[in-house]
């Protein structure tokens, strides 16, 4: 998929900006389509904007960077039954690092599955960028698919100096702690002005 497929152009003023505004950068999003089975949405991130680490419970996600450059970091939960480790706190859960890299459009589509592929991820904009997310099924509090945000901590922070406990390696694992981001996450909805999705 290309930017023009959803009515975007790299000539738009938003994508020309090289600097970020003061304070927390404000993220905008446009919903292309939503039904009971899936949703399609574009997120617009100014430089240095961050979509915090969050999950997609029971969902498959197709994520496509359309314009710009961003850093993506993602995790999958580690199954306690497959590893021998002690949890330092009830608020922490061990996860395996899947991805920690920078991407520049055009690039391949990322596919996140309910338990693999980096279902828990965070975006950090390097330049002004736009990313398309297709979620199936979509978020739904009524169906126990509400979004949860996390803060990641290095594995060694709670490992008591043991960097290889029960086969868990320091550099490719981390502890995730559920957090409340409502105070500082600034995200506004805008109208989608691109080609419409027509129900068949």
From TrEMBL:
One annotated GO molecular function: cysteine dioxygenase activity
Keyword Transcription: no
InterPro entries per the UniProt record, alphabetical: PCO/ADO, RmlC-like_jellyroll, RmlC_Cupin_sf
Coiled-coil boundaries: none
Keywords in alphabetical order: Iron, Metal-binding, Oxidoreductase
Source taxon at top rank: Eukaryota
Reaction it catalyzes: L-cysteine + O2 = 3-sulfino-L-alanine + H(+)
Record-listed E.C. numbers: 1.13.11.20
Cofactors that this protein relies on: Fe(2+)
Protein name: cysteine dioxygenase
Organism: Musa acuminata subsp. malaccensis (Wild banana)
């Amino acid at each position: 998929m290309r930017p023009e497929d959803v009515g975007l152009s790299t000539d738009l003023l938003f994508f020309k900006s090289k600097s970020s505004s003061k304070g927390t950068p404000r993220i905008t999003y446009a919903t292309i389509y939503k039904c009971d089975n899936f949703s399609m949405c574009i997120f617009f991130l100014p430089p240095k904007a961050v979509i915090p680490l969050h999950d997609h419970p029971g969902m498959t996600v197709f994520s496509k960077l359309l314009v710009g450059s961003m850093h993506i970091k993602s995790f999958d939960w580690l199954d306690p039954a497959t590893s021998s480790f002690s949890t330092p706190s009830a608020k922490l859960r061990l996860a395996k690092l899947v991805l920690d890299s920078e991407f520049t459009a055009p690039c391949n589509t990322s596919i996140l599955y309910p338990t693999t592929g980096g279902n828990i991820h965070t975006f950090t904009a390097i330049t002004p960028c736009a990313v398309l997310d297709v979620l199936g099924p979509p978020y739904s509090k009524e169906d126990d698919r509400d979004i949860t945000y996390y803060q990641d901590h290095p594995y060694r922070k709670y490992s008591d100096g043991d960097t290889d406990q029960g086969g868990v390696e320091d550099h490719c694992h981390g502890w995730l702690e559920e957090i409340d981001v409502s105070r500082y996450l600034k995200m506004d909805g805008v109208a989608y002005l691109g080609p419409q999705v027509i129900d068949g």
